Amino acid sequence: MKKKIIFSGIQPTGLLTIGNYIGALSQWEKLQKKYFCIYCIADLHALTIYQKKNILNNNILDVLSICLASGIDPKKSIIFIQSHVSQHTQLNWILNCFANFGVIKRMTQFKEKIYLNQNINVGLFSYPILMAADILLYQTYKVPVGKDQVQHIELVKDIARRFNNIYKKKIFTIPKKKLHENYGSCIMSLLSPFKKMSKSDNNKNNIITLFDNDFTIRKKIKHAITDSDNPPNIKFDLKNKPGISNLLIILSNITQISIKELEYNFQNKNYYDLKEFVINNLCLFLNKLRKKFFFYRKNEILLRKIMLNGAQKAEKYAKITLKKVYNIIGLNM
Ligand code: AQP
């Protein structure tokens, strides 16, 4: 039987966080067993924020290397750079003409970003339509996403349905969202556990990047917000104990020990013990991941081969959908 298609993307906008790893990359790796996976490094999306040429070039290679180090296997899956497959921008323009302005205006991520951004460009506003093109080009069955992206997936479904209805033909598969199974859909900031951990956070004490060394990890976890329960209570409770719950989620996802078991193991222990365990496991985990990362990152010839091969494979699928779209609209004479 033909495997169903998974599509997801990640922006090369800086050092990835443990949130990006748990919410996206670790899932991407697991999904390869059951699905045909297409993963893209979304460099066009990254342009919504001004990027310096050399930094962007390096970030793309860094993110590709991290994907490979996380177990994305180019023999099983397609991994490519978004700008290398021109059908993304071609379909993007067409979908711009099928997306409702009022609906796009309501996207909460745009509203949040305009407060943080001085460069409020049109790309920042229409970003979800490019995301729709990314997903719909590949007749995607499911999109693994973090909670922050759920509204965008609803928009993608909306655009696809509208297009199919207008032309009375199933040109696009209506994709479904796939949230993380072990609470990893939204890893929170260390100092503000009600706010998502984001690589672009100005306060670097809020985030653990995949490149933080042992000393930095120790310092950041030591400062992570917990609570003042007395006696200390290591219990998973997202509403009342967001800091502790966040640490348990991170720990569970990097050790594969269930949250229930962690709660059991930490009965009658204090927050110092929990933090020490988090620190030791994070250091161990990230040191291993970085070793694999450097293996790929040092081999630019291999990276370029993987990029080229991925783009060629992705283009084959993208062309089929774009042709259907051109035909039904009346662009192919
Ligand atoms: N904190 C998080 N917890 C779980 N998943 C997360 N993701 C991001 N942050 C968390 C997931 O990572 C994937 C790739 O994200 P992206 O880089 O394309 O964009 P993003 O969601 O905007 O990630 P950041 O870290 O917040 O980046 P900046 O700061 O550049 O905007 C997505 O699947 C996302 O859900």
Count of extended strands = 5
Bound molecules: adenosine-5'-tetraphosphate
Largest sheet: 3 strands, parallel
Oligomer category: single chain
Report the CATH C-level class of the largest domain: Alpha Beta
Structural class: mainly alpha
Domain tally: 2
Query: Treating each run of at least 4 consecutive H or I residues as one helix, how many helices?
Result: 13
In words, what does this structure look like?
By secondary structure, the chain is mainly alpha-helical. The protein folds into 2 domains: 5-186 and 299-329, HUPs (Rossmann fold, 3-Layer(aba) Sandwich), CATH 3.40.50; 204-294, Orthogonal Bundle (Tyrosyl-Transfer RNA Synthetase), CATH 1.10.240.10. It is built from 13 helices and 5 strands. The strands form 2 sheets. The protein has a 3-stranded parallel beta sheet. It has a two-stranded parallel sheet with strand order 4-5. Strand 4, helix 8 and strand 5 (176-178) form a beta-alpha-beta unit. Helix 7 (122-136) packs across helix 8 (150-167). The chain is globular and about 75 Å long. It starts with a strand and ends with a helix. The mean pLDDT is 95. The structure holds adenosine-5'-tetraphosphate. Adenosine-5'-tetraphosphate binds at residues 10-11, 13, 17, 19-20, 22-24, 42, 145-146, 148-149, 184-187, 196-200.
